[in-house]
Each structure stands twice: as C-alpha cells, then as structure tokens.
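Render this sequence as a predicted structure.
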Amino acid sequence: MKRERTKIIAEIGSNHLGDMELAQKMIKVAAQNGIDIVKFQSWQAKTLIKTYPDYEAKRTWYQKTELDEQKHQFLKEACAKAGVEFLTTVFDLGQVDFLARLTPERIKIASPDCSSLSLLKAVKSKFKEVIVSTGMTYDAEVIETARLLKDSNFVFMHCVSMYPTPLEQANLSRMEWLKQFTPRVGFSDHSLGVELAKMAVVLGACYVEKHFTIDRNLPGPDQKMSTLPEDFAELARYRDECEKAWGVSNRPLTDSEENLRKIYIGKWGNNK
C-alpha cells in the first residue's frame, strides 16, 4: 500500500520581524531547500489580554510583527511565486472569515487552542482541512476536540511544548494514539536538529513542521531554536529517500531475483 508523502512545513511565524522583504527572502530560501509549505501566524495585537506576562513588551512585539490583510495577501502571492503553499495559524475569532476567503484549503490551530471549542467550531466548516497541534493538551481535551471535528477533515499534530524538546521527552509513540481519532497524523517538532523529524517521517507523519529561520542571530523569541535552511534540505532529502525505499507492498520480483531463483532454489536438492 502506497502511503501519503510527508509534507514539510517551515514555520516562519514571526521570524520575519514584520519586514516583508525579509519574509519574501525566507519564502524563497525555503522553496529552494525542499520545503512544501511555509507557515505564518495570524493575530491581532489588540486582542492580547492585559494579564499576559510582560504585557507591554509583548504587545509591542506583536504590534510590530502583526500581519494585516495586505501583508497576508502579499505573503500568499510570494509563496505562490516561489512554488510553495501558504499556511497560517489563526489565533483569534475575528480573523477566521478573512482567512477563509484568503486561504480556504487549510488552516492551522496552535496547541493552546486545541481545546478552544468556539474557534474550532468557527473553522471546521470554512476550511477544507483543519490541522490541530496537541501540545500542552490533556487527553480528555484531545478527545473532545476529535468529537467536535469528527464530521470534518482534520489532522492532529503530535507536539511537545518544550523549547527545545529533548529526545527523551519526544514520545513519538503518541502519534499512534492520535490515529484512533484520525488516520492522518503529523508532528510539530520543537527539538534541535532534524533527527526527531526524520523519525516522524518513518512513522508516516503526513506533515512534519519545524520553526524556520535564515539567521539565528536575528532578533525575536523563536530565532535561536529555529532550524536553518540546510537542515531542512537534509530533512527533505531523507523524506525523499524514505519514499523511494517504502515502495509498494505487492511488489513483483525483480529480474535479478527471477534469475537467482533459477540458480538457488533446489541448490541443495529437493527440499519441498
């Protein structure tokens, strides 16, 4: 049985710093290194709750990196020109309708909103696919979310919300647990390097997502733990090699095997 090709998601998030020239450069570099989907984040700084830790500084950052409708459109067009898919994570109800018009194919829901039922209800009928990360989420909340989305096309992403995630905390076997709710399961990887992402490819992840940057010395909270283009290229090569090696389950014998049958079967006499 031929399995689905793993799509690699580069999570730029706010690593563009609000600079659309930098964002466009990141998109081009991502496309050049085997990435299928480039993902951003859609919020409105005005909705940030005032009790959030270090509110003033965080609000300033979110205002700087917020994407308005014009920037969203620019980024989607830049992705199309580069030959990659545009994707974004929606963080507030007020942007659902706009994003559904902009990019109706699929939407991402971040781990903190895995149990945000109002947001999930708003997106389930407006997008062809809903991708939901499950970090920092209790089992009961995952079950409730699966129940809400059961009549729609959705993907659960296994995720450990530790930055970075150490190998011994990865718990990749949880992907199998998530498959009881939806057969298509992915992995949102917060580890350093691409070893865990490679393992997820072998396990059949439909999506593998990692934070992306072109320079870890750029400002911003995610740059230091983001993955560089050359590492994404390595992951893409590995994914392609796995796809070749997987092949098909009902394979015919190769010509070499047919020839070896004639030589080796019966070599030690009739053992049938």
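Summary. The CA atoms of residues 24 and 75 lie 7 Å apart. Strands lie at 7-13, 37-42, 85-90, 106-109, 129-133, 154-159, 185-189, 207-211.
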